[in-house]
Amino acid sequence: MIKAYFAKMAGKGQSAPLTPPAEIYWSWLGSFLGISAVAGLHYFWAAPQDLVMIIGSFGASAVLVYGAISSPLAQPRNLIGGHFLSALVGVACFQFFGDMPVLAGALAVSLAIVLMQLTITLHPPGGATALIAVIGSDNLHNLGYFYALIPALSGALVMLVVALLVNNLAPTRKYPMYWL
User: What is the pLDDT at residue 179?
Assistant: First the structure.
């Protein structure tokens, strides 16, 4: 039984093929423009001295929506719903269990995963969005549930608009694969 358990970790398949140069270019362009747009919007509109409005989980979203555009995890429903719902969960966990950050963080991520699975909005960076709501700065905590709107939802929407524009410029790309 133990041997069978560890045998599952051996891996059997081939590694992923090398990404063609054109795909690498479009992934770079989309991620550069997407993150620049989110950071620029939040810098000029909200917080020039503290980029609290651009959260680290957007970096992981950029990998998906510009680099793995056919993945179910990169589709608009997942991008938007994953960040928004996870932000709500993260804020709630901080508000109820903020004095116990280990518990609050663990609950935020695990409950965000459950909610994303139940709503068919699984987006791995959403787990980070939930965790950031717990471990973030006082400036971020002061946003309360507004964190779900700005930066989580607004940043995801900006990245989606850039993904729609850039990913469809390339003749070999089509984004999204589906909306809902």
Answer: 96
Rounded to whole angstroms, the Cα distance separating 94 from 173 reads: 40
Contact (CB, 8 A) for 160 and 65: yes
To 10 degrees, what angle do helices 21-45 and 154-167 make?
150
CA torsion sign, 30 to 161 to 111 to 141? positive
> What's the CA gap between 1 and 49, in Å, rounded?
56
Q: pTM value? A: 0.93
Averaged over 120-135, what is the pLDDT? 98
Residue of 123, 28, 144, 15 whose CA lies nearest to 78: 123
Quote the distance between the C-alpha of residue 50 and its chain's center.
20
CA 152/CA 110 separation, integer angstroms: 18
Residue with tokens 């997942």: 78
* DSSP symbol at 167: H
Provide the token pair at 5.
Answer: 């358990």
> Quick check: 141 pLDDT over 70?
yes
Q: Which residue has the tokens 């995890």?
A: 73
pLDDT score at 48: 59
Residue whose entry in the numeric block shows the structure tokens 């940043």: 155
Taking a C-beta distance cutoff of 8 angstroms, is the pair 129, 112 a contact? yes
